[in-house]
UniProtKB/TrEMBL annotation:
Family, similarity comment: Belongs to the peptidase M16 family.
Protein's name in the database: Peptidase M16
Domain Peptidase M16 C-terminal positions: 166-339
InterPro entries linked to this entry: Metalloenz_LuxS/M16, MPP/UQCRC_Complex, Pept_M16_N, Pept_M16_Zn_BS, Peptidase_M16_C
SUPFAM superfamilies per UniProt: LuxS/MPP-like metallohydrolase
GO molecular function, one term: metal ion binding
Cofactor(s) demanded: Zn(2+)
PROSITE patterns reported in the protein's UniProt record: INSULINASE
Length: 421
């Protein structure tokens, strides 16, 4: 059901026909994110994303909103560290309209000077909103610490200084340089006919120059760091992390299981120990933040200032345990079934299927059958997970970011170690 065609300018069209659904999700994916920005222009990709909804030579911002609303559809966009996506969800027979709308905002947005200044204020307010939400801010701070002086450490939305300094022509130039054939994918899943969509894409986007893929900052080797951002908060928020595998690594399925066992849900070890047994935190979880060439494994929690050191010691103890002891067979089985179930349930959404098409192409260079993914999960053994933990959980790549009211003496530096006790 999946078909893929590449136009002469390098633009790739990937579709997945899903029987029995009436909707279609379509996305224009640009291999262009914050890691591809000059440091002094950090936030330009996110700024461009905002401006593309502010009017074209054919449509005002209000007309864009009314046109998608008039068919009961949905239109949105997002920017990450590695790509931007502009996407819509409509009934299958409205797909040509949705593509025309997306192509119009990509190709013909006017970047009206008054709208640029209005949207600059909106983005600055967005940055302030993140600053006022410690449970959001801590993750950006951790990325800046872990990927220090590397483009992956740049905040996706930029900083108040860089956003304030971006000029209209810089936004236009960035769009023109990056929104080119080799950087673009059109992905659609649901009630879609590949050949009909291909004809429309070729007509609307086939004349784009091929261009070239952007550089993303090169290789990276993490170093051990601890940082405190002082805030007058009731809780101390922290992220503790170490390196992880890139998105295309052959051992990534063991990495997914490792993360889920550590802190991926209510049955995970960290949730059971820190929340259920010790009552130290309401929120505790782990996640993977992985990219095309590197990644990190992160644990987040928020505790009272007096409990933060104990919570961190417990996190380190569980990471150490994963390095030293194979996980129990029943827990491995349950976590494996959890991940497989999550994957299969996600396929009931055309949005998720569309995103999966793009990410598989970007990270893996092609599509991976669901049966193959299930088979890869089933092949992972307890010893595979232990060996991967032993490889990744090392002192040299440990990073610890605090946010809150904590004295320097509260840093548990004396035992910030994964070495055996």
């Amino acid at each position: 059901m999946i078909q893929s065609t590449t136009l002469q300018n390098g633009l790739r069209v990937i579709t997945e026909y899903v029987p029995g659904v009436h909707s279609v999700s379509i996305g224009l994916w640009v291999a262009n994110g914050s890691r591809h920005e000059p440091f002094e222009h950090n936030g330009v990709a996110h700024f461009v994303e905002h401006m593309l909804f502010k009017g074209t030579t054919r449509r005002t911002a209000r007309a864009i909103a009314r046109e998608i609303d008039a068919v009961g559809g949905f239109l949105n966009a997002f920017t990450t560290r590695e790509f931007s996506c502009f996407y819509a969800k409509v009934m299958g027979d409205k797909l040509p309209m949705a593509l025309d709308l997306l192509a119009d905002i990509i190709l013909d947005s006017t970047f009206d000077p008054e709208e640029v200044e209005k949207e600059r204020k909106v983005i600055l307010q967005e940055l302030h909103m993140v600053e006022d939400a410690p449970e959001d801010c801590i993750h950006d701070l951790f990325c800046q610490l872990f990927w220090k002086k590397h483009p992956l450490g740049l905040p996706t939305a930029g900083t108040a200084k860089t956003v304030s300094g971006l000029q209209r022509q810089q936004l236009i130039d960035y769009r023109d340089q990056r929104f080119v054939g080799r950087n673009l994918m059109v992905c659609a899943a649901g009630a879609v006919n590949h050949d009909l969509l291909l004809n429309d894409v070729e007509r609307l986007l086939g004349s784009l120059p091929a261009g070239s893929l952007p550089a993303g900052g090169g290789g990276f080797e993490p170093q051990r760091r601890v940082s405190l951002e002082h805030r007058d908060l009731e809780q101390v928020h922290f992220c503790l992390g170490t390196r992880a595998l890139p998105q295309n690594h052959p051992d990534r399925f063991a990495g997914f299981l490792l993360n889920a066992i550590l802190g991926g849900g209510m049955s995970s070890r960290l949730f059971q120990v820190i929340r259920e047994e010790r009552g130290l935190a309401y929120s505790v979880y782990s996640y993977l933040n992985c990219h095309v060439d590197s990644g990190c494994q992160v644990v987040y929690s928020a505790t009272s200032p007096t409990d933060s050191a104990d919570a961190i010691r417990l996190v380190l103890a569980e990471m150490r345990r994963l390095k030293e002891e194979p996980v129990e067979d029943d827990l491995l089985h349950d976590i494996r079934e959890q991940l497989k179930g999550n994957l299969i349930l996600s396929l009931e959404s055309t949005d998720n299927r569309m995103s999966r098409l793009a990410k598989n192409q970007y990270y893996l260079g092609g599509q991976l059958e669901i049966d193959t993914v299930i088979e890869q999960f089933d092949r992972v053994t307890a010893e595979d997970v232990r060996q991967l933990a032993a490889e990744l959980f090392t002192n040299r790549s440990l990073n610890l970011q605090f946010l809150g009211k904590l004295e320097v003496s509260g840093f548990p530096m004396f035992d910030l170690s994964l070495d055996p006790n």
